[in-house]
Amino acid sequence: MPLSTLANKKYTSYLNCKNKENRFLQTLISDLEEIKPSTIKQLAKLGLYRVQDLLFHLPQRYQDKTRITPIGNLQIGTEALIQGKLTSSYIYPGRQSSLFCCLTDNTGSISLRFFHFSYWQKKLLILNAHIRCFGEIRQGAKSLELIHPEWMVLRDKDGSIESHLTPIYPTTNGLSQTTLRYLIQRIINELNTKEIEENLSTELLKFIHLPSLHQAISYLHQPPPDASIALLTEGKHPTQQRLAFDELLAHRLALKQLKLHSYQLQAPVLQASRKLIKQFLTIFPFALTQAQQRVTEEILGDIAKNTPMQRLLQGDVGSGKTIVAAFGVLQAVETGYQAALMVPTELLAEQHLAVFQHWVSPLGIKVERLPTKGNIKARRQCLMELKQGDIHLIIGTHVLFQEEVIFHNLGLVVIDEQHRFGVTQRLALLEKGQGNNYCPHQLIMTATPIPRTLAMATYGDFNTSIIDQLPPGRSPIMTVAIPDFRRNEVIIKIREACREGKQVYWVCTLVEESETLQAQAAEKVASDLNQLLPELNIGLVHGRLKPQEKESVMTDFRVGNIKLLVATTVIEVGVDVPNASLMVIENAERLGLSQLHQLRGRVGRSTERSYCILLYHGPLSKLGRARLDCLRTTQDGFEIARLDLELRGPGILLGTRQTGLISYRVANLLRDQDLLAKVDQVADKLIAQYPHYIPKIIYRWLGEGSRYKDV
Ligand code: ADP
Ligand code: MG
């Protein structure tokens, strides 16, 4: 039986005999009283469906409103709660008038500035009013200042202050912190009389030397005033470490079970005369590199056995992994089986479709991409052909493992750019072939070179193949770092490059994960560039475009109609347009090195000399400079990954997305590496001594909420 179903089934039966508290944790948020339907929708966007999901939805940071700081002791750059009397309040006239106040206590004064204010704000923020404010202290022109602070009028002089640190939760448009806080608070209050059920025995808790789940969860939603904000911000507080431990444990257990489980399953023997491969090689315009030949043999050797292959193919950007995957596909098809290729973005799905159709359709192989749900007729047709075995290779994003997708006989699953997928997605896709008690072979490909311990945590015990050689004739990508006030020079360079028939990427980056903001920024850049370079045909691609729009822009770029492509980081992985040989990356100082390396890998994909311009917004810190220098001087992804870890240092916590490792909810593989050894030991102990705990732990962290979450 498929593992995730196994976990769910056991868990459900287990649930039936559980006490009240657990049933409460499993309650759907929509079944709670007095919750607005709009709130339920917004929570669902965050992957929060059940009470338990809310409890495990942890603050991303905290504010300290538990103490009042005397104005004389304020420090620039920190957030503080202050109170005092308004000693002036006036409206500064102008096109858009603003409200200025001066707040004074017996240790000093600070300015408050409001660039937008309402009638009632003006009425309340008057001379002599007693005010309490919270915000970030900045250095203004004349004095310290707070811009748009949170504020309240104090009715009596002391008014009560918060008894806990104030949590700030990750949220989504339209869902306020107040609503989230209120909801989570409400649940914690209900829980207070009961305990959140522990995942580990007392003995194991002692072994890992971390607090209980209940302690950890309640602490993190309401840290006491003396909690260390520094530790919490770094994610190093023991309560956070406990949850990170649990999450890593859940993944580890899932991977271990996956492995154990697949040992018991048969895989189809994909062994054939290599007729298709030979035919294909006559069409392929290049000779394979030695590294490509070597790993091809490793893969073909594996899939010719009746145990499921579990192989990880690492190879730097541009090293030619796709073709190697194609050999596996050809072998599967020649043996009479189907293959699936799963990719992390629609853009990449489209590109792979074009590449594979070009490569293998002439050999009579039918390649399709799974149409979206909106495209009902085409989708139904595709699903039917897939079920009957008429389609040999199907390409798609994680939609490939939706339940309605049924294969005739899936022999090989290739997952490209694996670091974007979590173990849940892999579990789900593997279920596809298991109807007849067999399991398809699995090849996962990634450009992210990571140390063995991290690889284990991410992929499980996979065999590894490495393409350690680039195709011949590739010269290093000339990389320069230029401050953004020298944009004009960059424009000239673009003009020259396009005049010579080259194509150019302009990548807009924002650290915010909001696609809307990213799209807006990219639109602005595109329209600016249109004015500066009116002679060029400029395209724009970002995550807010409809799939067809994205595809048509990418096609125009691929065939050369578009000379300059303005893009967000949607093009980060896998995109292959060999004629593009200049890339400009804006705000390069804000991105992780591995991500920059991935992005840069979109150029330098032919024998043409390629350039990458890292535009940064100065002044650069010493570390910032060292990071850009590293990219300027190094092309080797392994070396860059190593330096990335080294230069990151404590205090700089970039999201895991930027490092190319999979994203967890709480854990961060880089930060929490030290936990991994114990995670492994505890996983083994659970398997040996407490197997009945396992489905529950897996479910808790990899349950339905995370299962179909978009990657
Ligand atoms: P990645 O490993 O980043 O996925 P791709 O598979 O997209 O790289 O290959 C990058 C480019 O190199 C493609 O345009 C591909 O056709 C080309 N390529 C692959 N193998 C060779 C080779 N042996 N010689 C020359 N070019 C190659
Ligand atoms: Mg690729």
What this model shows, in words?
With 711 residues, the chain is of the alpha/beta class. It contains 26 helices and 22 strands. It has a seven-stranded mixed sheet, with no helix packed on it. Helix 10 crosses helix 25 and helix 14 packs across helix 20. It is globular. The N terminus and C terminus are likely disordered. Adenosine-5'-diphosphate binds next to helix 13. It catalyses: Couples ATP hydrolysis with the unwinding of duplex DNA by translocating in the 3'-5' direction; ATP + H2O = ADP + phosphate + H(+). It is an enzyme of class 5 (isomerase).
Can you lay out the helices and strands and say which pair or pack?
Elements: H1 3-16, H2 20-26, H3 37-45, H4 51-55, E1 61-63, E2 79-92, E3 98-105, E4 108-114, H5 119-124, E5 130-136, E6 138-139, E7 144-147, E8 150-153, E9 166-168, H6 177-191, H7 202-208, H8 213-221, H9 229-234, H10 238-263, H11 275-283, H12 290-303, E10 310-315, H13 321-335, E11 338-342, H14 346-360, E12 367-369, H15 376-388, E13 393-396, E14 410-415, H16 423-431, E15 441-446, H17 452-459, E16 463-467, E17 478-483, H18 487-499, E18 503-507, H19 515-532, E19 538-541, H20 547-559, E20 564-567, E21 580-585, H21 593-600, E22 611-616, H22 622-633, H23 637-648, H24 676-689, H25 694-702, H26 704-707
Parallel strand pairs: 4-7, 10-15, 10-16, 11-13, 11-14, 12-13, 14-15, 17-22, 18-20, 18-21, 19-20, 21-22
Antiparallel strand pairs: 1-9, 2-3, 2-5, 3-4, 5-8, 6-7
Helix pairs in contact: 1-25, 8-10, 10-24, 10-25, 12-13, 14-20, 22-23
The chain binds adenosine-5'-diphosphate and magnesium ion (MG).
